[in-house]
Automatic annotation (TrEMBL):
Residues 10-72 form the HTH iclR-type domain. This is IclR family transcriptional regulator. Residues 73-257 form the IclR-ED domain. PROSITE patterns: HTH_ICLR, ICLR_ED. SUPFAM superfamilies: GAF domain-like, Winged helix' DNA-binding domain. Keywords: DNA-binding, Transcription, Transcription regulation. PANTHER family: HELIX-TURN-HELIX TRANSCRIPTIONAL REGULATOR, ICLR FAMILY (PTHR30136), HTH-TYPE TRANSCRIPTIONAL REPRESSOR ALLR (PTHR30136:SF24). It comes from the Bacteria. Coiled coil: none annotated.
Amino acid sequence: MTPADPRAAAPAADHTLRVLAFLARQRGPVAARTIAAALELPRSTVYRLLRVMVEHAFVVHLPEERRYGLGVAAYELSSGFSRQEPLARLGTPVLTGLVDRIGQSAHLAVLHGRDVVYIVEARAPRRPPLVTDVGVRLPAAATASGRAQLAALPAAQVRALYPDASAFTGAFPRAPRGYVALREALRDVRARGFAWEDGDVTDGLASVGVVVRDHAGWPAASIAVTFPRDDVPEPVVPALVAEVTAAADLLARRIHGRAPVG
């Protein structure tokens, strides 16, 4: 760490934020010694920080378990993030630039249960109308946007979202109709590095979707491009995928508060 590093000027703030970020990545409350070991901090320092954060409700202490988890004040920060809609604001210029480069329509979607909700749409001139307008919800399993995000979740969580056949009811007969079919589709997404949907939502239209991950590696959203299948020859698809992937990486860096590379 150099003197120019802002963390050197405010080590307590740096330690506090690192503790909060670590707790946010855990599946449940953890012991103070676990935090200290993971962050390579003195245990006494961790206990002092936790006491202050408990007083301000950013952390909750579970005395019976001797563990610590995120408190209600941390949840309020998350709610504030949602209210201010920074994801849509950060994503709009990324999608606009993507559409300018490729000449096809693009959209940004977030996962909500078994659905995806579209929060930004950037339409290219003279392209066919899409069903993915802002605010529209579609079954995640039927869309490239949804599959890109589902593939980034642990298998147990996907299984919990789709416990039985009733979870697959919908108006898209070409989409996976059962858990085994969905599992295979998500395995394909992981192998490719992107999601591909061809006519599952709208006949004649195909989509490429790429997940946008948050600081902990979880799916925060996905960027997808939809186009008339006949307008994009097979040899052109890899270049299109590369553009969508670059846009997803750029948005991930913007979410993390990091400057674009290059």
